[in-house]
Here is the input.
Amino acid sequence: MLMFPTLNEQMDLIRSGAVEIIPEDELIKKIEVSIKKNKPLIIKLGCDPSKPDLHIGHAVVLHKMRQFQDLGHHAILIIGDFTGMIGDPTGKNVTRPHLTLEETRINGQTYLEQATMILSKDRLEVRYNSEWLGEMSFRDVIELSAKYTVAQLLERDDFNIRYKSGQPISVHELLYPLAQAMDSAAINSDVELGGTDQKFNLLVGREIQKAYGTEPQVILTMPLLEGTDGVEKMSKSYNNYIAFNDTPRDMFGKVMSIPDNMILRFFRYGARGTEKDIKEMEEQLKSDSFNPRDAKVRTAKQIVAIYHGVEAGENALAEFEKIFKNKDVPDEIEEMRLDVESQVQPLMDVLVLTSLAPSKKEAKRLIEQGGVTVDGERIGDFRAEIDLSKERLIKVGKRKFLKVSGNLIDKINGKMYQ
RNA sequence: GGGUAGGUACCGAAGCGGUUAAACGGGGCAGACUGUAAAUCUGCUGAGCUCAGCUCUACGGAGGUUCGAAUCCUUCCCUGCCCA
Here is the structure.
């Protein structure tokens, strides 16, 4: 038999880090009923499978979902395979390309794999919204859209801005919030989680649930974590993200690159810092004798540990110190063998063939700017050649390392020598 | 349906017949510096080559005028706004 923590215990944990809970008293009531009837709440989190690469910004809300699971509630992850075909309006004036159902399905699977790095697999249900949205007839859609008005939809900030500034809004984009709201009605969610940018959509869910005669969900919003630049929100398009699938080394380095004033935020929302630890770090950062770098290291280690384990966090730290403090080379460097007709190759070509540079022009620039090192020796002449008969260590910029060697092949019949 | 304003490189935005691979800003990359992959400063930022030079591709698409077009003309596509 399940035992739920007390109301206060639940609320303390649920409130921590949340921006808004609307309306909070309804949540309290729901939890009270849940404890009394010993019945878990249904917690909804929708995800957009058009972008299957999760980053730490997405993690904020997943961590919250996990807390609900730990409290004994039932998590439903909705993969928006159907809505993915529409694409959530991003506020950008470009309407995004639509994906096919198959594509969104594949992405959804990838998404799930990553999400379960944070979510528990117990008390987790995964639903695809094509299940109900795909079944709706045009009549159903009209019925649904009759329950909401254009003016209400235009209240949404990004619609509003686009409308006022004369940028296009397609009708299907307007329909998106309604589709998402339909999900809530379909699964009877008690609580829906989302980033603060989702507030509008989440609230529409309440209205639509009421319109279909079910108890409205409570919405809980989490902040949007800024990216490594500390300015824009974390997003792939700003290239300021830390992906779940980043290597420990990259993850660590990226955390180390955040501005000092972001340390606490990353610690709380990215590293899952407890209230107690956050307080402690806050005090430390206030003291002059404390080096903010140490707080960053702690945050970085903890974040790496979530995705790669504690040991990986320690190793990443060691590597980082090696590369940047001691300007040394990392322990593990990727190796690559190139098929060549001659062991002596122009360095520029090698850079392009190994994808260290995207084009020969770019390779030339890198060399001329002194960004390329072979076996520790800086090469300044873009015409330089490199002998690949033994393994060479090429370094491009501060943090790209590659061991390259040549693999002689016969041009005529493609046979390998060696 | 009528009128009108637009569509420029990764993004924003100049240019409105030649000296424009296209000002400026952001972003990105490299170098110096640093606790730091932060901040700051400097440089670079379409591609290929027999590389202080040459060639090709590029200003929504397709044609045309011209010695020469992102810039002028025709036409098509896309978008905003106003009127109906």
Q: What stands out?
A: The first helix of chain A runs from residue 7 to 15.
